[in-house]
Amino acid sequence: MLWNKARPSDNVTDTRQSPSNRLPPSKKLVIALGAAALSGAVALGSLTAPQEADPASPPVSEVTPENTEDLDLAFVRAVLGDTEDTWRALFQSLDQPYPEPTLTLFEQGVTSGCGYASSAVGPFYCPDNQALYLDLGFFRKMAQRMSDFGAFAQAYVIAHEVGHHVQTRLGLSRPFDEALGAGHPTAGDNGLEVRAELQADCLAGVWAHHAQQRLNWLEPGDLQAALEAAAVFGDDYRRGNQTTGPMPETFTHGTSAQRVRWFERGFEQGRIEQCDTFSANPL
């Protein structure tokens, strides 16, 4: 992935090695990607990346990171910057402004707008302050457990959390939000929480579609790696690696096949309206 083609975002705050963020936990909700008990690799089908120019997108200029000693930070800024460019253009097509989320890098734990979260939660989005939170140690752990957790697979993780921001701003996940606010159960196979997570996967695919049209930055194997990442986050894959085996009634993110299918759908179509997981039957 030629990520240095992207415009770096100014909305990244680096709080790594900042002990002031490590406070007692809170019970407030965060929307998390989650990554427990991940191991091995999943073989997935390949896709052909779209190559056409996107006339609605801003011009591209290749960027060289200012701080070459911290490529991790430069990478995160580049990916977030391109999500900003992509979603700004898509929101404009809907006659809406795109409020850019912030992204905070942290270590061990962080006090977010939704309360305290440890690194064990994984990358997450807090709707209360429209912010993403990421411990880069998550990427290092995934690289040790997957056959290829390269740059585009990491970009997919960030884009998934941005997808939660998009669905919140556009009201796409209203059934889940309303059920959550009313205290109704949302977990379970084909449940509202699963549908919200699959919608974020699809929106990540929409971003990837338009980013590739504009930047032509994907290299051989990039898309395969992102699909593999989507698969290992599936409830059946993660919980199948535990002694009890998969329990559909506890699913919160969708199966591996579902996550791959919805990311592919977003990538192939590049259209927000194709991501209506709440009306889809079956998922």
From TrEMBL:
Cite the source lineage: Bacteria, Pseudomonadati, Pseudomonadota, Gammaproteobacteria, Pseudomonadales
Query: Could you tell me which residues belong to the region Disordered?
Result: 1-25
Q: Does the keyword 4Fe-4S apply?
A: no
**Can you cite an annotated GO cellular component?**
membrane
Alphabetized UniProt keyword annotations: Membrane, Transmembrane, Transmembrane helix
What membrane topology does this protein have? Answer: Single-pass membrane protein
Name of this chain's protein: Neutral zinc metallopeptidase
Q: Where in the cell is it found?
A: Membrane
Source organism: Pseudomonas kielensis
Q: Where is the composition biased (Polar residues)?
A: 10-23
